[in-house]
Amino acid sequence: MDLDVSWRQVHALLGENGAGKSTLMNVVYGLLRPDAGEISFDGQRVEIRSPLDAIRLGIGMVHQHFMLIPPLTVAENIVLGHEIANRGVIDLAGASSRVHELSQRFGLDVNPRERIADLSVGTQQRVEILKALYRGARLLILDEPTAVLTPQEIDGLFAIVRALVAEGNAVIFITHKLAEVAQIADVITVMRRGQVVATTTPKESSSADLARMMVGRPVLLRVEKKPAEPGARSLAVEDLVVLDDRRHVAVDKVNLEVRAGEIVGIAGVEGNGQNELVEAIMGLRPMKGGRVLLEGHEIGRATTRSRLHRGLGLIPPDRHRMGVVLELSVADNLVLDDYDRPPFARWLVRQFSAITEYAERLIKTFDIRVQNPEQPVSSLSGGNQQKLVVARQLGTLPKVLIASQPTRGVDVGSIEFIHRQIVSERDRGLAVLLVSSELDEVLSLADRVAVIYRGHIVAVIDAKDADRERVGLLMAGAA
Amino acid sequence: MAAAWRGRVVTTVLVPLVSVVCGFLVGAIAIVAAGADPLVAYGALFAGAFTNHNALAETLVSTTPYLGLGLAVALGFRAGLFNIGAEGQFYIGSLAGTFVAYSIHGLPPVLEVPLGLIAGMAGGALWASIAGGLKARFGAHEVITTIMLNYVSFLVASYLVDTKGLMLAPDVSTPRTPDVDPSAVLPVILAGSRLHVGFILALLAVPVVWFLIERTTIGFRLRAVGFSQGAARAAGISVGRTIVLTMALSGALAGFAGIVEVLGVNYHMTDTVAAGYGFDAIAVALLARSNPWGVLPAAFLFGALHNGAGFMQLETQISSDLISIVQASVIIFVAAPVIVGWLFRLRRAPAETVHITQREVDAPVT
Fold it and tell me: Which of chain B's residues have a Cβ under 8 Å away from the Cβ of A244?
């Protein structure tokens, strides 16, 4: 594949998860070595063997997960590895003023003396950008930079990106979000399965065109659904208080209810208590106060196991850590919740014919692409792994589904499929609590939108009144 | 499919086999360095292990504890637990079983033997559950706790065996327990040798443990926890209870090995019964790649080395300690990837924590 990036341009690299965007950029940044082909920088053929080589050339990269040390200050983090020392003593004052100057020039608005731990995610990202600039980056690679930002923070990031290219730098912007591409990119390269399928501009190609190029077939961009017909109260959360791992209050007196046949979406920037809320509802994290009611019965003290058996289902936010056991087979994973109950086990002995039969049925119903039910889950694509998780949860016919980041890291085709499944289960009377950091997902799926900010539900809005702007402001705490 | 099958053959059969060969090569270098002829030495080792009078029977006698202990460690591995305490569980199991076996009198062997065995397994299980409980409740790493509990068990054993009025036999010159009741003894199955029924029992334990791991819900739970505690928890599996249960099962197997050794070979306990069997067992389990069927040849190899080493020393004046070098190199070769994997996991665990903390730091806190 070929890719040409020019100075003074924002070059968007658009593609689904697994299309090879990050792999390509890791090659450019020296984290991976190419098997064949060459890289030229500023007209010179270069060999980039390590990130150090890349930095020396003037290539900087901001990863999806920040590489910052929380207890250290901004300045300390930025000079780390490139300390200017005066007889063995770090010249932090000099570094600070340099950081301050860079920050002013590009409108980054970062105070070099603040501790990383005290900064918002958006600011931490700006620190990452500063770090790259401090090391002399002229080509900046941003890997999915908007995933953790509020809509307003995204606007701020875009302004910074424009200021950078205005000074003659270049930015490679990796993303799978179509809307952003239209907003920020000068040139767009679309990747699919490791190949460049098109190089175009926002003027030439509409979002629908780009989606088609990305997936390889026409895509339904909006979720089609009928108006909800909410029934009885299925799940209720009353005055729930939950602590995070550091024993700080993460969920603060939250009240929430989900009725049968409706999808309640929780919108919020990641890390505002969503995970703690979900874990407390599932019994994976102790509650500090309040009640959780399933169809009117208090389940706050029940084990996770008994909650699952009483009709609660969970699509966990982190597939690899909580959703599947990669080393076990597809069939084993499909019965992970019910492995010891009939017909999958009699006494203590597992009944493999029943397990296989059930697995084959779910594989068919949920269109999980596998060769056979005995292959390990690790050999499946992300989309198929996630479909497996969805199949396991919906296969037990739950009354309430907690869907946390149900389509994270999943290809567009699987996203469509999972959304359709959730909506059709809703129509059959399932109560769904949807938690997603993708605002578009919440807005297109939910019947009611609850906005979470710093552990509080700051507003519950009817989906028809919930527009991006308003929800975005609420997500940022501007109530 | 064919490629996958070949891959499995390579990892489960070829790697251990090559490791064994390499181990012997390294051992040969050591023997040369010690100024002897490796061929002569290995010839004597082989004779001592297989061809001499009763040598094969003696090898099987030594194989017996390795079977039980190897299965014990392998079972732990499958749940992601590194049970270094098999040696201690072997001791405590032996103590409990021996106590029962010399205290009861007048029952027929069909009752006394099982009673002794059950007491031994219960002792091992309880002892191992301490480490399991500490891990489940407080997150104490089992590698640390089982090592510590080993020391405790050695001291408990020597205290009990050396103290009058406790387990010390009356009128003996060296401290030991009284002999077990004749009805509790595991009968010899090969006339003129020491090979006893315990060997058959240990052999039977192999398919039993395999069935437990691969075919029962307990085994499934254990494997799920071993692979991914997060996914197991989210699926409603109690990780803590599974850890305690696994340690108890592992300890029961170690205790079984211990009491079988007493009822089949020694008939009483001194304070040095185990003689390092429990530590060799870690090597057996590694060589077996934690597969119960793999424990069979691995235990046999270690039984043969153990048994042949003595004869080799007698015959060639080469210290039997050289065999430890062979054993150690075999393990280094077979376990290098596994051991590296373990260290990696130990180190990755905190790394993951850092990752989580990072995410929390991201979380604005009121």
Answer: 360, 363, 365
pTM beyond 0.95, yes or no: no
CB contact at 8 A, A252 and A436? no
Tell me whether B139 touches chain A (CB under 8 Å).
Answer: no
Asked whether residue B96 is domain-assigned, the answer is yes
Query: What would the two tokens of residue A128 be?
Result: 């990452």
Which of A70, A124, A350 is nearest residue B217 as measured by Cβ atoms? A350
| Beta bridge pairs of residue A436 | A267
Instruction: Among B78, B212, B249, B366, pick the best mutation site for testing chain A contact (most A Cβ within 10 A).
Output: B366
In a domain, residue B283? The reply is yes
Cβ-nearest to A322 among B216, B230, B361: B230
Within a domain: B346: no
Q: Which residues of B touch A309 (CB under 8 A)?
A: 236
Find the closest chain A residue to B361 by CA distance: A117
Does a structural domain hold residue B40?
no
Structure tokens at B113: 């033997």
CB contact under 8 A, A245 and B356: yes
Q: Could you list the pLDDT tens digit for every one of the 366 residues in chain B?
A: 455 666 666 667 777 777 788 888 888 998 898 888 889 989 999 999 998 888 999 999 999 999 999 999 999 999 999 999 999 999 999 999 999 999 999 999 999 999 999 999 999 999 999 999 999 999 999 999 999 999 999 999 999 999 888 998 888 888 899 999 999 999 999 988 999 999 999 999 999 999 999 999 999 999 999 999 999 999 999 999 999 999 999 999 999 999 999 999 999 998 775 568 888 999 899 889 899 999 999 999 999 999 998 888 888 888 888 888 888 888 787 766 664 445 445 444 433 332 322 222 333 333
Are B292 and B214 in contact by the 8 Å Cβ rule? The answer is no
Find the farthest-apart pair of alpha carbons in chain A and give their distance in angstroms, rounded. Answer: 74
Pick the residue from chain A with its C-alpha nearest to B216.
A349
| Lookup result for tokens 């990863």 | A63
Looking at the predicted complex, does its ipTM rise above 0.85? Answer: no
Tokens of B105: 């009198």
Overall number of domains in chain B: 1
What residues make up the domain containing B266?
55-307
Taking contacts as CB-CB distances below 8 angstroms, the residues of chain B near A455 are 366
Q: Which residues pair with A10 in a beta bridge?
A: A171
Residues shown for chain B: 366
